[in-house]
Fold these 2 entries.
Entry 1:
Amino acid sequence: MIRCPRVFSPAWFSLLAICVSTSSAQHNAISPAIAAPISIYSEDSVSGAPLSETRALHEVEQLARLKTEGVHFDYDLISVPAFGIDSPMLRPEGWPDGTRTWIEKCQSIGVRPGLQIDGNSLTPPELAAALQTWYDRGVRLFDFKALNPAPAKSTQSDDADRSAAALRDALRTFRERNRDAVLLVPSGETGAAHSPANADFASHVDAAGIGGFTILSTDPARLVANPEANVWRSIDIQRDAAVRRFEQAGIPLAQIESPGFTASRAADLSLHAWKSEFLLSMARGGWVNAMHGDLSLIEESDARWMARAQKVFLGLQEQGHVHSFGGAAGSSDPYGFVGADTRGAIYVVVNPSGKVTTMDLPQSETGESAWGAGRVQFRDNGYIPHLKVNSLTLGPGQMAMVGYGAYSAPAYNLGIEQDVVIPQSVEELDADFHSSSPGALEASLNPPIEGVLRVIVRPRKSDGISTNGRAAGRTVTLDATQSGRPIPIRLDAGNSGAGDPSWVVGEIDVNDLTPGVPLLLKAQSSGPHPPELEGSAYAVVD
């Protein structure tokens, strides 16, 4: 058994990842296919329109702008089905110069071109030849969203072993000939990358044996499981939960690809709650760090902030000492990610519950303090987290970053997430929520005398909802009346997309209420087979 030292020292930090209280299935995975974590800009998520040469070149200009402010990019990844994996010389509509200008522009700013491809349509020899042609034109990253090519035309057999062996030999030969090429190979595990073809390939071919790096992509976040007053935080929590489920099932964090960071416009046409999203995307520990969206939204000052965060977390990822800790994925218990090296440790912690919560950050087996003075280096606006040695108190739905050792220095202070405001006080109210009919919920309560009344309504967890929350056509509505008078509710609906069971978080300003008069709340779940609902109410003071 490894014993954690009782003193705060560089050696203690180097052992921290082993000593923290995490699942026994968690472990490091450093692949010879990638020398260090990589940072990718993926142009497939900028908009729903097909990618054109004009837009691709515009994003390369944005990459150059951000790089001058210190933001790190290794690859510019595009997906252009119109070219065909074996037809790099084509000039389809929207690409008058083919990929030549795009490749040259990438190379001129020190970013390597990458191609997202479907490897299922070609035989192994054809696929290897196509990869070589693209490599010779300058492409260095090949992201296989599917990889199980058709059997060789010379054989009538569909034997999986023979097909996998041919593919393995072809890719291994290509990789040995082109040592700086990076092959991202989808895992056969469950997740967004899962398909029968991928599973079949993964069961017969070891990605490391062909010089590839296996990645497991998580499903996109769905606003179904974690009702939060801030919808952006709900997305953060669900992305964290997806990564942590895979880690706790034995998949190394290094090989888990979360959706990454997306620069997108909010209703006011600006970035919203982006700093916490960016920190969490880095803190999850995946070696494939993706960025999406409209890079022109990122101002120079924001880019310098991103560069500071990147420098810290890419270094911790490379050490391989990043783990999750805390409550089970998807629960209401606080959780986080910790990265450590010989200089210190950084904890990124989230409280997904609706109340102020205190948790102990993982420490030595002896339970004795070996921490020194830590510092909260980033937090949401509003409630100020309290840190005492390794005990951290967070407000409801709050995220914070804590540094120890060298990372407790002022130089690592990343400021405040202005767009997520955590209340100073949250007190659960005595409200008798009860079912009045199928899919309906009612409650009568005495409203608070200050602040706002927050109401959360969600489907019951025991209602048979699957882990990804899919259930077609469900929505939840919430109404409030006082002495028969309708009361305005500010809603943050969890059902942002059709096909997902909904939750709602509603807030009522006490200035709209008559003191001492009971308030009647009614919620209704619509759609086929409406689930039973559960509710809670809180007095919130900002």
Note: The two ends are 47 Å apart (CA to CA).
Entry 2:
Amino acid sequence: MTLLVGKRTGSNLVDLNRIGKTTKWLDISSSVSDSQGGTVERAEAVFYADSDGNWHMRFNISTAFASASVSAVTFTFSDLVFRSGTNHRQAVSGAMDANSEGTKAYANPGASTISVERATSAASTTWTTISGDVELDAEPTVFTIDANMESGDVQASIKNADDSNPGLLSYQNQVSVDLAADPNSGSFTGGVLKLVRIDKAVILSGESKLTHGSAGSVSSLAGLVPADFRPTSNTTDDAWNEFYRDASGSCGISVKSDGQLLVEYYNDSGAVSRTDTVKAPTMVYTVP
């Protein structure tokens, strides 16, 4: 099954496997021309989709042409359109070889053109270059996107996210909790928890097993789990999962409404003492 995510409106769904990845630097010279009929000396671009399903192009393009008195140059792209919307011009960098000071460049909304305009009067010009990162109106069709995707590690970016750096999925909440360093770790001594919230669903997963002193029940202090990832109550069904079982017993994990993390070990006779969770914990639960 392919997991899709999108804007809250449900539009622009994008394959989750593409998020956090980009295409290779691709040669798009056959898809670019300028209004001076110049020769494309360099035209490379990277395409990627953000967490809301919007497609972007990061590019660097240079053209050269016979010397001419020029005040503006228009670049035209086949097979792609820049994001539409009233006055939704996207600024990019642009330069010409003479009197480039104050030159402005922008992608035209709902069109396939980028305008480069000299701030001063027309001057003799032999080259123009543009570069930037712009939002597209839809997935580009000039290339087979999936075939040109670079490998990427979405989980690595989620792991490194924190409250000030929400990571790849900007419309979601994501956090990484290091139990060896967090002041609210309580009885836990090691392990990293990753929490990803998608609307009202929270995915909790461990980077590795969690460690602690020998005990049958281990808990953190209140506040370890941030408020956005806490269930509404402390009933077992709200945020609890038995994620491991072997011949000696089982291991369950739960999150409490005050942000406390609890791990319990047990078998048919009662509590069983362990010093770690044996494997990385996992759980999916819902929040308000």
Note: The chain is about 0% helix and 45% strand.
